Structure formats: structure tokens, C-alpha cells
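User: Show me an example of a complex going from sequences to C-alpha cells.

Assistant: Sure. Here are the input components:
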Amino acid sequence: MLEIANLHAAVGDRPILKGLTLSVKAGEVHAIMGPNGAGKSTLAHVLAGREGYSVTEGTAMFGGADLLAMAPHERAAAGLFLGFQYPVEIPGVSNLLFLRTALNAQRRLRGEPEISGADFMKKVRTESAVLGLDLEMLKRGVNVGFSGGEKKRNEAFQLGMLEPKFALLDETDSGLDIDALRIVSEGINRFRRADRGVLLITHYQRLLDHVRPDFVHVLSGGRIIESGGADLAHRLEAEGYEGIAA
Amino acid sequence: MIDLPSSWPSRKDEAWRWADLRHAELWGTKPPPANDALPETSVHWLDIPGERRLFVGGHPVDSEAQLPMPDRTLPKHPLADLAAAAAVAGTDLELAAGEDGGTLQLLHLGTGGATHGVTRLTLGAGARLTLIESFADDDADHWLNHRLDADVGEGASLTRIVRLRTRHGLVSERAAVTLAGGARFTQLAVVSASGAARTEVLVRHDGPGAHADVNGILLGDGAAALDALTRLEHRVPGTGSGQVWRLVAAGQSQVSVAGGVNVARHAQLTDAEQSLKALVLKRTAAAHLKPELEIFADDVKCAHGCTVGELDKAALFYLQSRGIPVAEAQSLLTRAFVADALAVIAEPALREALDAETRGWLESRT
């Protein structure tokens, strides 16, 4: 589903990713762990197409198409979803207007009909109830006045609404208390399906207690230095990144 | 023979620093060319019910000719005074105490040469009126120059939408509004002219409890030079005002606003707020913001804020990452930016019509 080969990427002149190779098949959940500065967020931003990140070598294919050749909105329409570490506040644009615009823009690009107002609201009610998000909150500006936990829940809500094929979740667990972590994890587990892929980027193993990955990779110095099963996360927690990297 | 100003205001005059008056000098009082053909006007009306009056080249179409007397108590003004002297027709409307005038739309169409016009309003105590004044043109270069003089009686309420949407030459208009005690004046200017445009508002708060909200949206693209100037005079104790101006500069346009608040020495307990913000969409465009506060009383609240910026890159990427193409994302953020100025319009249908107009401008932008 997602095939990354020998990916090199830089922020400005500074190389961050230095030959990263990773393959995620449909139905799989992968976790990438690594110390600060390893390039975890850079990987997320490069895959989503953020301005300011340049790919200097290597490829990333998504569903057989060249991901790196697509504009950010095309990547979304192709089925890639980036869950932000720091979701952005957008005053004046309501959550509902934002989501409906996004959903219809994706559908237009895929040649599908736009969603009706009634169907959209029905979906909003179902998904927001699962995540415990108040409908009144969703009428406010995107993430405006949301707590850290509410912002992450809103990311999980958008994941449920947009129904992508692949979720790339950047430090979704940061800033969450135990209850919020459980709710957001349930959102991710609901998303898991045989035809969908998930890549979790995280510092800590605690998210992986709730969302059990099939594979765990250690990213250090811009490359994957070790891969294993779910138990690798526990080893990391016990030995630290330094122990693994040594 | 009408006297032209002995000298036109220049950029050396602080009040005219960013105004582009070349077309005023060029056309002066030269009347529009005679033409019986009626230009297409349907696109210029705001889709709102109410009486409509059309002026083409300064002459009324399908309504009786009136020539109102301007308010002689107003200070001298080079363009507004010329408008009064050179106008061949105008609108004179007097509402009796308690009368609800509903919504009146006036469309002023420039057809070449110089077109001058006057609107005179007198609202009796407790009267209400929504006035929509729109300025547009056909395909000729011209100068369209107008003045509105309004007296708003005790507890009366005037809402004015002024739309400057000419595509050529210069449009200039000055509104002078005098408020009695407890009177309200709410104005929203929507300026999207492609040439030069100047909108100016003078409000005199003459009675306690009077309140004015003077907002504006300037949408500049191409080589447009859009310029707004306000002067809100708090002349008695216990009056209030709000100003929210949102300027968007694209292309090589220049958008400017000078927001003035004057509080007289004895006008204690004045409550005046002002927020001027500009969004520069392209580095080839320019925005000028100038808060001008002159406060001579000591027990007043006068808040003001002023910022110039670009679209938030993080917000743009967030929208794109959810599937919204960059142009649509910019449009969404820009609409959100101007929404603060629109919010003053209480009537939902009117607010939505104006929001749709902003959206139309954003979508048609090059």
C-alpha cells in the first residue's frame, strides 16, 4: 500500500531523512518510534507534502502511484490522512464547513458526487458521538478554544469522517490524558480494516498498549535501524533508544 | 458654470495620502456623453427585496427627478462640495417619526465623463431605514463622485451598505452622518473596484447614547487603488463607536484605510473601538493602515488594534492536507478574515448576500 524506498529529505539545506525504506501493506499497523530529532515528524510532513521539505533522493509510492508527485490535496483525495501532532486553529472557519468542504473537494477529485447536507449531518452525529465531541463545539472555528485532548479527538473525528485508506498519525498520543488516550485509541482501532493501513509515529509505547501494532520500527539519524514485532516497543521502553542504537 | 477646486487634494495632504485622484482632475465636471441606450444593470443590484432606484450618468431612470439641498453645516470638502454643486439629480428622503422606511437600493452607474450625485436623508425620531448604495459603471473611463448627508433623529436607526464596484476610472463617495441622542448608524462598505476608489465617512455624535458602527471590506486586485478614511467625532458625553476594517490586497493593488476617532474635551465616557487588519495575498501588493485617535477627554475607553499579515501557512497546509485545493483553501481563509467586518450586519439575508459577493470576488480573482 505504502512503499517508501531509500528516501532522503531535507528541511532547507539540512538533510534529515537519510535513506529510509519502509513498506506497509493493507491491513497492517506499523509504528515508528525514535528519539527526538530522528526525523519522525519530517517523515510525516514529507509524505503529506508540506512546503519547505524537499526530497533529494528515493521514492514513495502509494497504492501504486507516485505519492511525491502529487499536490497535498491530491494525496488526501488518494486516501492519505495525516493526523497532526499540533492541529492548527483556524478562527472564522467552522469545523463543519471545513469538513464538508474537504469531503466534497476529495469527492470531486475522485469523480464522485458531493455528499448531501442530510447525509453529512448524519455522519457527523454518528462520528462525533463515538469520540464524545459536542456538536456545538463543531460549529465553532476549527480547533478554536479546544484543549490539547479535544484537538486530538478532533483529528480522530476527521479520520472517521473522511474515511481515508491510510492513516499517518504523528504523535497522536502527545498531550493526552489516560481517558483521552483510550478514546483516541478506540478511534484508531475502529479505523483498522483489512483494506486500510496505519502508520503510527510515537515517542512512547503507551499508545501501543491500546493500538497493538503488527510491526515496530526504530528511526534514528534519518534511517530505520531496527524493525520487529510489538515486543520491540517494550524492549525500547526498558532499554531506551541508546541501548537499541548501540 | 461650476467652479472646480482651485487645487485638488494631493498626496501631501494627510487625509489624501493614498488617494488616486487622477481621474477627478481628468474629468472634473465634464458631463457624460449623451446616450439613450440603457446599460445592463442586473448584476449590480444586491439580491434583496425593497424599492430600487437607478441613476445612469447622474440622471434618474423611471423615478422622478429630485435635487436635494446638502447639509450646509458640514465642514468644507473638495469632492463632496463639488458633488453638491455639480449634481443634476439625487435622492431626497425624509422619514417621519417612527416610520419604517424598509430597504431602499440606489444604484449609481457611471457612463463616461464625470457624474456627480447627492443623497439626502432625514430620519425622524425612532425612524428606521436600510439604504444600499451601489456604484458601478459600463465600459467607459470616468469619474463617479457622490455625497450622502444624513440626519438621524433621536433613537432612529440607519443601516447603510455602500458597494464600490466600478471597473474603470475613479469612484469617490463621502457620507456625513449626524446622530441625535440614542441614534444608531451602522455602515458596511464593500469596495471591490478594479480602478481607483475612495470611501469616506464622517460621523458626528451629537446626542448622548448615539452609537455608530463603521465597518469596511476592501478587496484589491490587479492595479486597484482602494482608499478609505473615517472620522468619528464624539462631541458629547456618553457616545460609542466601533470600527472593523478588513483589507485584502492581491495582484499589484494598493489598499489603505485611515481610521479616525476624535473625542472632544467634554465628551467623557466615550466608548470607541477600532480594529484595522490587512491581509496581503501577494508580495507585489501593498496595504496601509493608519489609526488616528485624537482624544481630549480623560475618562474614555478607546481601544484600537492594527495588523498587516499574510495567510497563515500552517492553516493553509492543514486545509490542503484534508483535500482542499490551495486556491479554495486561500479563499476559505480569506472569507474567514473578512467575516469580522460582515458580522455587524444583523439581517441574515443581507449578510449572506454580502458574504456571497466576497466569495464571488475571491473565486473570480486572477
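The lines above are the inputs; the final block is the predicted structure for all two components together. Chain A has a mean pLDDT of 91.
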